[in-house]
Write a structure and sequence with these properties.
Blueprint lengths: L17 E11 L8 E17 L3 E8 L13 H13 L4 E7 L10 H16 L6 H16 L6 H6 L2 E4 L7 E4 L6 E7 L5 H6 L7 H20 L2 H8 L5 H6 L5 H10 L4 E4 L6 E5 L2 H17 L4 E6 L7 E2 L2
Parallel strand pairs: 3-4
Antiparallel strand pairs: 1-2, 1-11, 2-4, 2-5, 5-6, 7-9, 7-10, 8-9
Helix pairs in contact: 1-2, 1-3, 2-3, 6-7, 9-10
């Protein structure tokens, strides 16, 4: 994305003692755009507080909201990995302690690791006076994400910039903002089953037919056209027709067909797998329909005897940002 016209003067000493940053959940792929499309959500998200310390490096202070599941080693935590890389880019004197408040469920397909990385990168940069722009922070977030789920930017890019983005590669110059339809509302459900990204990638076909490749290309083009024209009906039709990734991953998500049918009956235009799943995301035309679809999701999983978490939200035009 374009760099800022002016940058603050770089400083190696902190501008304050502590800052906190919120980074949003993200929905990657949007159905047909595997690894190349991502969307930021208004809520939920992760919060990282960065506090200056004299000792060099990024240390993990605390984690809450993860039920003790995340590694406490800084070398294995995406927030600390991203924070460390930003410190190195800044040639900072001293280091940071990072406190992570997880608002996102793990292994859910909502970009949990990317949100932690983006929040940490922006927080560390802000602590030192924000001399780097988002283009400069992207590599740190990509490296952090690569440590847990592979080198791709379809989650970290929208977590940093917000909105809906086209990701042609993991370089800032290859990331392009797309229009966000004003009427788009979302209903999401995360059933209580974990789908690790590595597992979700392992089930994908190693080869695809020429027919499916041509069809997928046309669907991606139609989806981007739908975003530019604000045509939610076309957006829904194209996003839900994915012939390659969705069929392979649907079997990993209990109740997928039932939940999709229930949401459609409640008025949703389409239901997609968010990232690698198991979260499902329904595209809706207004808030009332989104709430109805969320209720339909919840009822479906209750009938199936599977716990779930549902919520409604909208695409966010803002990525990682200071909150206090």
């Amino acid at each position: 994305m374009p760099k800022s016209a002016q940058r603050p003067t770089r400083q190696t000493h902190p501008a304050g003692e502590s800052v906190a940053v919120f980074a949003p959940a993200t929905v990657a792929n949007l159905g047909v755009g595997f690894d190349i499309l991502g969307m930021a959500l208004e809520a939920p998200g992760d919060i990282v507080r960065a506090t200056y310390r004299e000792q060099p490096g990024a240390a993990l202070g605390s984690i809450s909201g993860d039920d003790g599941r995340l590694p406490r080693s800084a070398a294995r935590n995406t927030a600390c990995i991203a924070g460390q890389l930003v410190l190195e880019r800044l040639s900072a004197s001293g280091g940071v302690s990072l406190d992570l408040e997880k608002g996102l469920p793990l292994a859910s397909g909502l970009g949990s690791s990317a949100a932690s990385a983006a929040a940490a990168a922006v927080a560390v940069n802000a602590l030192y006076g924000a001399p780097l722009d988002l283009d400069d922070l992207l590599p740190a977030c990509v490296e952090a994400e690569a440590s847990v789920s592979g080198r791709h930017a379809d989650n970290v890019a929208p977590a940093l910039w917000g909105g809906i983005v086209l990701v042609m590669s993991a370089e800032a110059r290859a990331i392009h903002p797309l229009p966000v339809p004003e009427e788009l509302h979302l209903a999401l459900v995360t059933p209580d089953v974990a789908v690790p990204t590595a597992h979700a990638r392992a089930v994908l076909p190693a080869r695809v037919s020429m027919h499916d490749m041509v069809r997928q290309t046309a669907l991606v083009a139609a989806l981007i056209h739908a975003l530019h024209t604000g045509d939610l009906a076309l957006l829904a039709r194209t996003a839900e027709q994915d012939p390659i990734v969705t069929p392979a991953r649907a079997n990993l998500i209990p109740g997928f067909d039932q939940a999709r049918a229930a949401a459609r009956e409640a008025g949703a235009l389409a239901t997609l797998i968010s990232g690698s799943g198991p979260t499902l995301c329904a595209l809706c035309v207004d808030s009332a329909t989104a709430h109805a679809a969320a209720g339909a999701f919840a009822a479906t999983y209750e009938r199936l005897g599977i716990g779930s978490r549902t919520f409604t939200t909208r695409p966010s035009l803002h990525g990682a940002r200071l909150i206090k």
